[in-house]
Write a structure and sequence with these properties.
Length: 92
């Protein structure tokens, strides 16, 4: 069983190789870490997808299921809703 900090370190290393994450994307992934750790403990197949540019109708964070896998989709770049969610939350 992975601790959340170890999982985040592994996630950060894996995602950094696949894409350059913004500070906001890293913060959203950190906020989602309990769900990601729980899914890993259950051995659920989950993909984290970072959209390169949000569309006007995109919510910052969405989940879905396709092809037998869970999909966690971050649509943060250029999305004013994404920053508004954390506006009142102090940086860790």
């Amino acid at each position: 069983m992975l601790k959340s900090s170890l999982f985040l370190a592994l996630l950060a290393g894996a995602t950094a190789q696949a894409a350059d994450l913004t500070a906001l994307e890293a913060r959203w992934l950190q906020a989602a870490s309990p769900v990601l750790v729980y899914s890993q403990n259950l051995k659920l197949p989950i993909d984290v997808i970072v959209q390169p540019q949000a569309r006007a109708s995109d919510v910052p964070l969405a989940m879905g299921y396709a092809g037998g896998r869970c999909k966690l989709v971050l649509s943060l770049r250029g999305n004013p809703q994404a920053e508004a969610v954390f506006a009142g939350v102090p940086e860790p």
